[in-house]
Task: inverse folding
């Protein structure tokens, strides 16, 4: 049995245990980990007790007995604790491993210093940000911090810090008696400095990306690239949000979040979407006029029309994006872009535009979720165009909304509308070999009993709300992404939802297309404008209804409420998204996402800690080599010599004197003769220095250095 002083016990057991507990509890509290702090503390203290007993009673029998006790604790948890068994087992294993590892690391003075300073820094920083900590945690942090200070003092003055442990432990525990102010300190300047630094770093990174990133082959916008490259719509990999400002929107707000189209895709290739080569009539007014005709055909009541239709005008200003794509909502009346280029069914600028480029458009904002509009969409295929009613569109636009629109002659409109319809049915019903028979069968089963294209579209849209949203998904290789999403994986992000809905619509002979763009969140403002960042990039579906044109469908479950809620909340105008399991599904998925994020944070923190430990150990190694090279302290030089000799020729027996050990080395053949001659002299010098209080000359110290360097 070893005899330890109280300070030794504090230094080799209590300080590592406190360090372990404080760091662990901070991780649990700051990362919101799904682990009980109480369980963690109890098992950590038990692990510390095991460590202390093994240190106090170093006999082999005691060590074996304690290992059996540890195994017994784990078995007891597995068989007798009925709740949170896995949590207990994991915490026990982590506690035992971490305590032993930490005790080993805490032998190094630099580890003790780093632990105390880091823990206190984290707590002070988070306290400024409003985080609250228990007094026990604060006391423990103060102990570690004072220990770090005493270790630094001892380092600079070549002393021992153990004698101070009792003093600063008493000071720390006295803080339990101190009164605590309930009002936080007003450290607003800390927040201002923090925000300024974050904005400066963000600006530098964004500017570097913008200046050096390529715009790709043709500078076309894609939801994954958000302006930095022409990466296309790859459905096999997850997406990473880029919280970088892409656009600014000025002008009228819409009643619901705004969908801005950037790229329309019509050709499905199994794991990607592409824009076809079909050249359609680029008179975008035709689609808008069809919708207005259907609406005005339903009623001429001014109050009713003003309630469900708004005419808006907005200005788009490009920020950190280089693109040829134009961003605009559905049903636009006009757009202030000269030389609009044609690319499939997209509106493009004739050149790649950069930061500062701007344009305006006017558009028709429609309340698609109202009962009034749903009746129109149900009956739109029965509409027959009449010239007098068509001319009334322009009259009502001017009288009700003050909008003048260049008139398209009636005969030209009818001809273009029919050509437009025929092209749509030629281009947007293609399914190809990528759509399996079970996808078609699933779509038929879902829409069984539906009477109109609109009813089928909404039924298919609603069906997809049961799928789990996961933007970090990675699709297995060599699978059909559509089949995998619908039948195997049953999870994905917006592009997977949109692909599934579009293909099932085509299976039911309803023309459809996938749209890449931005879902504008009006919460983010920059002065008088609304900021659109890369994280707002989104994919949705447009379906074509005869007599009305393209309508937007939102199959992604996390946006269902925004897309399917009417502007006005009353019993006649609102269609709720009725899904008995929708609330439970969303709640469960939020909990899973919270747990996933928490564990990811823990892994990141552990990774950072591992890197710091490696850096520290490397720094200690380099520091030691520098000290040995420069030091003339006989103790330091001789202990380095002894360590090198033990590593190469064998460990010194505790009962041997230095002279006896060196004599043993001189009898070994592998020790060079030039070294043997100097070893006996070095051993006698150190014994005289240690036990006879004699001095050692600088030349003798240098001689021992030379022996150590050779060894």
Result:
């Amino acid at each position: 049995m070893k005899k330890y002083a109280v300070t030794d016990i504090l230094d080799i057991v209590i300080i590592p245990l406190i360090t372990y507990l404080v760091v662990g509890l901070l991780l649990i509290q700051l990362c919101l980990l799904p682990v009980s702090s109480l369980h963690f503390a109890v098992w950590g203290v038990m692990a510390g007790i095991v460590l202390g007993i093994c240190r106090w009673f170093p006999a082999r029998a005691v060590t074996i007995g304690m290992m059996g006790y540890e195994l017994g604790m784990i078995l007891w948890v597995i068989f007798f604790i009925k709740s949170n068994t896995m949590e207990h087992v994991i915490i026990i294993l982590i506690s035992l491993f971490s305590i032993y590892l930490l005790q080993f690391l805490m032998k190094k003075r630099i580890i003790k210093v780093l632990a105390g300073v880091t823990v206190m820094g984290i707590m002070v920083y988070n306290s400024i940000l409003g985080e609250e900590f228990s007094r026990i945690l604060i006391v423990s942090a103060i102990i570690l911090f004072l220990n770090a200070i005493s270790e630094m003092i001892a380092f600079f003055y070549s002393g021992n810090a153990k004698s101070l442990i009792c003093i600063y432990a008493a000071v720390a525990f006295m803080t339990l008696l101190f009164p605590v102010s309930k009002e936080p300190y007003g450290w607003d300047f800390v927040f201002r400095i923090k925000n300024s630094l974050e904005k400066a770093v963000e600006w530098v990174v964004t500017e570097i990306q913008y200046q050096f990133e390529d715009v790709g082959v043709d500078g076309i916008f894609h939801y994954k690239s958000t302006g930095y490259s022409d990466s296309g719509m790859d459905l096999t990999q997850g997406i990473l949000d880029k919280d970088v400002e892409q656009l600014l929107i000025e002008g009228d707000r819409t009643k619901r979040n705004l969908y801005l189209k950037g790229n329309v895709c019509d050709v499905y290739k199994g794991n990607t979407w592409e824009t076809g080569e079909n050249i359609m009539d680029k008179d975008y007014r035709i689609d808008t006029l069809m919708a207005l005709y259907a609406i005005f055909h339903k009623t001429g009541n001014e109050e009713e029309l003003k309630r469900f239709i708004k005419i808006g005008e907005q200005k788009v200003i490009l920020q950190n994006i280089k693109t040829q794509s134009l961003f605009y909502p559905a049903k636009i009346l006009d757009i202030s872009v000269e030389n609009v280029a044609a690319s499939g069914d997209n509106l493009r600028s004739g050149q790649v535009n950069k930061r500062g480029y701007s344009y305006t458009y006017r558009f028709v904002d429609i309340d698609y979720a109202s009962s009034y509009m749903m009746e129109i969409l149900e009956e739109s295929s029965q509409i027959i165009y009449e010239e007098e009613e068509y001319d009334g569109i322009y009259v009502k636009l001017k009288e009700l909304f003050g909008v003048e629109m260049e008139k398209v002659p009636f005969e030209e409109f009818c001809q273009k509308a029919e050509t437009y319809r025929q092209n749509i049915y030629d281009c947007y019903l293609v399914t190809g070999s990528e759509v399996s028979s079970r996808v078609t069968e699933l779509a038929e089963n879902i829409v069984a009993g539906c009477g109109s294209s609109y009813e089928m579209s909404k039924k298919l849209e609603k069906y997809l709300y049961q799928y789990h949203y996961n933007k970090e998904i990675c699709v297995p290789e060599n699978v059909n992404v559509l089949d995998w999403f619908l039948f195997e994986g049953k999870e994905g992000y917006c592009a997977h939802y949109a692909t599934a809905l579009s293909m099932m619509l085509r299976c039911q002979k309803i023309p459809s297309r996938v749209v890449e763009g931005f879902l504008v969140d009006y919460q983010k403002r920059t002065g008088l404008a609304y900021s659109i960042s890369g994280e707002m990039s989104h994919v949705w579906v447009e379906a074509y209804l005869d007599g009305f044109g393209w309508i937007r469908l939102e199959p992604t479950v996390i946006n269902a409420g925004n897309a399917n809620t009417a502007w006005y909340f009353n019993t006649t105008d609102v269609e709720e998204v009725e899904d008995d399991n929708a609330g439970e599904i969303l709640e469960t998925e939020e909990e899973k996402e919270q747990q996933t994020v928490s564990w990811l944070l823990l892994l990141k923190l552990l990774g950072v800690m591992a890197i710091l430990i490696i850096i520290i150990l490397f720094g200690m190694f380099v520091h030691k080599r520098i000290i040995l090279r420069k030091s003339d302290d006989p103790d330091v030089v001789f202990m380095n010599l002894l360590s090198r000799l033990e590593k190469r020729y064998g460990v010194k027996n505790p009962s041997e004197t230095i002279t006896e050990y060196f004599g043993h080395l001189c009898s070994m053949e592998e020790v060079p003769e030039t070294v043997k001659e100097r070893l006996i002299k070095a051993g006698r010098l150190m014994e005289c220095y240690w036990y006879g209080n004699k001095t050692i000359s600088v030349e003798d110290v240098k001689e021992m250095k030379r022996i150590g360097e050779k060894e």
Notes: The chain has a mean pLDDT of 75. The CA atoms of residues 31 and 601 lie 6 Å apart. The first strand starts at residue 233 and ends at 234.
